[in-house]
């Protein structure tokens, strides 16, 4: 018996959400977790190595030439400056890879969601279950990299303990929106657009240098990017530069999560519950 079949009796549908939610996203997550453990674990582990290599090559190597960076009036080493950015990026990458590429295969080739929605599960159960799995992957990437930061002394304040909840918010935001966006894609070549968006965002979102190096019009564009908000949130927590701006970053992700959940649920309902 599959995880979906075993779990369809659990939970109660919400009266407000009606047919879109049966109250059992855990069944969908359990199925995805089982598949990841048995077939995809090496791919998941390899995703952790990229930010570590960036940290060693740029933060440690290039950092010796750059010296310190001014962040909110506090001068910190270059490694301590880029480490929280790579931490936020780790959470983003884990969540995006799971909620886009894996979901794309299930939507267009595995046809798994058609079977799931033939059970009492609703589209919101499927959306939340897959997003929870993507959230777990992003959290694992972030937690592992956070451990590396602790080991080499790049967490400069006790508030770095709050970085892990921040990573969950970041991963949740990217996972919910990513699943909704990928539901519009029909071919593998369209997946290239994900990298087309992620790579410039990664390079520009104050990852390797302060946003102040750009002209003000460019800064305004960057401040609209979700990764920039994630990096600034994590950087403030790990360096101890706590300001009211951190709350706005959290609110940005709250809106991103809400939009992503509505978009994903609407798309699954349109695709499979016609």
Automatic annotation (TrEMBL):
Transmembrane parts of this sequence: 41-63, 75-96, 134-152, 158-181, 193-213, 246-264
How is the protein disposed in the membrane? Multi-pass membrane protein
Q: Which residues form a coiled coil?
A: none
- Domain ABC transmembrane type-2 residues, every copy: 42-271
For this protein, the record's PROSITE patterns field holds: ABC_TM2
Q: Does the keyword Disulfide bond apply?
A: no
Similarity comment text for this entry: Belongs to the ABC-2 integral membrane protein family.
Name it: Transport permease protein
- The record lists the organism as Gryllotalpicola kribbensis
Q: What is the lineage of its organism?
A: Bacteria, Bacillati, Actinomycetota, Actinomycetes, Micrococcales
């Amino acid at each position: 018996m599959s995880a979906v079949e075993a779990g369809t009796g659990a939970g109660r549908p919400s009266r407000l959400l009606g047919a879109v939610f049966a109250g059992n996203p855990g069944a969908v997550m359990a199925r995805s977790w089982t598949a990841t453990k048995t077939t995809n674990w090496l791919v998941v582990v390899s995703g952790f190595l990229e930010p570590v290599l960036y940290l060693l090559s740029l933060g440690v190597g290039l950092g010796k030439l750059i010296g310190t960076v001014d962040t909110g009036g506090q001068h910190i080493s270059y490694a301590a400056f880029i480490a929280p950015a790579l931490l936020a990026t780790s959470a983003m990458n884990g969540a995006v890879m799971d909620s886009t590429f894996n979901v794309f295969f299930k939507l267009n080739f595995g046809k798994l969601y058609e079977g799931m929605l033939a059970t009492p599960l609703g589209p919101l159960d499927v959306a939340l279950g897959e997003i929870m799995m993507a959230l777990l992957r992003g959290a694992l990437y972030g937690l592992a990299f956070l451990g590396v930061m602790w080991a080499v002394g790049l967490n400069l304040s006790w508030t770095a303990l709050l970085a892990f909840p921040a990573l969950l918010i970041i991963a949740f935001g990217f996972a919910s929106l990513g699943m909704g966006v990928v539901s519009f894609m029909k071919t593998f070549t369209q997946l290239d657009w994900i990298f087309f968006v992620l790579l410039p965002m990664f390079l520009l979102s104050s990852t390797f240098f302060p946003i102040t190096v750009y002209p003000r019009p460019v800064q305004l564009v960057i401040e609209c990017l979700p990764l920039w908000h994630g990096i600034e949130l994590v950087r403030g927590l790990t360096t101890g530069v706590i300001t009211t701006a951190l709350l706005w970053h959290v609110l940005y992700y709250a809106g991103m999560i809400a939009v992503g959940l509505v978009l994903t649920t609407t798309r699954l309902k349109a695709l499979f519950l016609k």
